[in-house]
From TrEMBL, chain A:
Species in which this protein is naturally found: Pseudobutyrivibrio xylanivorans
Location in or out of the cell: Cell membrane
Family: Belongs to the binding-protein-dependent transport system permease family. MalFG subfamily.
InterPro entries: MetI-like, MetI-like_sf
Annotated protein name in UniProt: Maltose/maltodextrin transport system permease protein
Biological processes annotated in GO: maltodextrin transmembrane transport
Alphabetized PROSITE patterns for the sequence: ABC_TM1 (PS50928)
Topology with respect to the bilayer: Multi-pass membrane protein
From TrEMBL, chain B:
Source organism (scientific name): Pseudobutyrivibrio xylanivorans
Protein name as it appears in the record: Extracellular solute-binding protein
A biological-process GO annotation: maltose transport
Entry similarity comment: Belongs to the bacterial solute-binding protein 1 family.
Gene3D superfamilies reported for this sequence: Periplasmic binding protein-like II (3.40.190.10)
Keyword Signal (UniProt): yes
GO molecular function: maltose binding
Amino acid sequence: MIKELYTKLSYVVWGLLNIIHGQIVKGLIFLSLEISYILFMIISGARNLAQLITLGDKLQGMNFNEEIGIYEMTAGDNSMLILLYGVITIVISIVALSIGFFSVSSGKAARDRAMAGKHNNNFLEDLRSLTNNNIRFLLLSVPVVGLIVFTVMPLLYMILMAFTNYDQNHQPPGNLFDWVGIKNFITLLSTGDRLASTFWPVLGWTLIWGFAATFTCYFGGMILAMIINSKGIKFKKFWRTIFVFTMAIPGFISLRVVATMLGEKGIFNVLLQQWGFTSTSLPFLSNATWARFSVIIVNFWIGVPVTMLMVSGILMNIPGELYEAARIDGAGPVTMFRKITFPYMWFVTTPYLISNLISNFNNFNTIYFLTAGEPHTLDYYKGAGKTDLLVTWLYKLTKDSNDFNLAATIGIIIFVISAIFTLISFSRSNSLKNEEGFS
Amino acid sequence: MKMKRLVATMLSVAMVAGTVTGCGANSGSSEGSAATSTAQEGETQDVTLKIWVPEEEVEITDAMVKKFDEIHDEFNITYEIAVVGIDEAPQALDTDADTAADIFYTPSGGVADLAGKGLLLPITKDYETIKDELPESALNAVTVDDITYAVPFSPNTFFMYYNKDLLTEEEVKDLDTIMAKDLGDGKYNFSTHITDSWYSEMFFLGNGCTLFGDDGKDATDCTFNNEAGLAAGQYIVDLVENPKYIEDLDGAGGSEFKAGNLGAITSGAWSAPEFREALGDKLGAVALPTATIGGNKVQLSNFVDFKTITVKSNTQYPLAAQQLAVFMGNPENSLTRYENQGDIPVLESLASSEAISSDFVAKALNQQASYATNQPSIPKMGDYWDPMKALGEGIYYGDITSANLQAQLDSLVDSITGTLTE
């Protein structure tokens, strides 16, 4: 019966069973972790969690000090820090509770082994086992800790921001912000609101851009690779090198240069007018429709070499006898492309296409350095321009108008859209369904 | 302690991952109230002050603080002077108030915004020594709810430079006269920056429209879409269609002006050195011209704002910091700054002094400042720039014409004054 009691107690006193059944060091480590967690909660954790509910209620104040004739500031609560500390406390608590459950199960295992008369590992043996039959714990511990500290905590912090009113009128340290539930999502997605009438068109353009940018580069690169690979071409290496050169120049430099070239007094317009093609300068980047075509074409020029390089490798892997057989059967080059090359390429590159599509939805660099989202328009609200993607608009919201809550909301929406796309296309793609390979 | 380190790590993580929300580590001290240390009679107080000034002002600032030390025996101050420009300083304070300087420069347009966020210390001590010399517009620009938050030292606005070979002093008084003159082939008459919202308002304000009320404090007001606004918009539409007009886009107007192919261009004091170098004695500078908008001859009126000296709210030494801030903006130091830097002083006693009244650029600037409208400094001003730029671009690129002007002006006003549905 006393054993039962110990087992029950071990839920409260972590490591108790380990200590009783001879794993003293292990048990003490569990116990000390428990004590330090409890101390942390007493010292600051509990207050952090309590403040997280209100996000602070004491405003920064100012008092006039008559004696010296100056204003003195009294510090108030800083909602942003309260939110941050709250998130840290939550994560620490979750980790601590997992350790607690782990200690209980480890204790029970030790108890059962002791009852069965088996040997319980001492601390050194435990440590050694980490490099042997328990190596998975050793190997996984580093990425898990890294993930929690560098990904989960910041991400949680950002996600929570979307449910507050942390906008330009609620900036710490002078003001407090507060929880508003899903109001931001409603404002952004509901029709009829000024913000929503900006969000949907920007989302629409983001999708158009994503597909156009991905597929133009994909097919352009494929065609280019096939031309270079085809039989009649000499100096294959030289051509490949020429195209790869564009990759050696940092993207944003070429983008800035191209943006200047496409400007009203840029080289394109000057030359076109000198050669008499147009009498006025063409609005490459200043008219909404023109600008949208321009960014897609410039992105094509920048993105094609990357695809070409990748596709070249895959083309060489296609078994030559397939083409031989096709030729004997009297297939022309078009038929060969349709029946052999393209299906093979499609099969191999689907995962690449999906990841490329997602990264194009969030292609901040190309848009920002080429047009910065311009041309501006009076149809949109909060600084969005006609070529702004959700990502660049999000950036403007944080940088220009300090609307962190809206930015976080848009961030979550982008994530949801990307996740949906990825899941659907991955689950339907052949290369994952049928890993046996191409036949 | 461990917690503190963890928090520091977390904050840096948050900043790295901050691409999602662009959050900065904005630590405010969480210990009850900021300790204000006041010196007891006769003893010196140890003070450390961090000062941010533009690169070219480091030396004169160094000289200023030495003089300040001579006057104030009650402080024993250690100075850290670093180079941070007037544009970056407010942003840096916003990002991390703890590591920001105690004293730094801020454009007056940003004062209300920072004060609203609780980041600026009201400046009261010694202020009366310069208050009487400040024009009302300058005081208004740094006052929020009857509390002064900054020390203005130099007005910043644009006026008009002209080429004396192409235009006479009489002609530059009126924009329509300038545009009507035939300067011959390959020459332009006038250039401004319609696609920049810091320039394009001059026609609207000149024609009597208001932005945020008469005092620039009313966030719900913008009358750019009334009859006067429509006339001003129409004037701009006609102006940019005129082949004798050149848009100062990517410096296009400036380079034509320096080449001697342009009659008049709007720009600020910062262009004076390069224009002088290019045109020499042919360069003239005057206030903005009048224009006949909607049948009435009106004086064009642009924004004027001021360069100011500000103190952060969580400074450890509020008394010393604000006394030094006022000291840096006093007549003697403003004059030093003008002589070294060309920052035209705002103080009235200096504006009328010999050195400055003989400088035609300073004269044009001061003349225009008297015609100008105070740039509103309420936080809502942040919602003005983008829509106004959109209007300018729309007109210049031909997307906005007489036909849809009224509708576009309506949505401009809607964008400027609108708030998120609460």
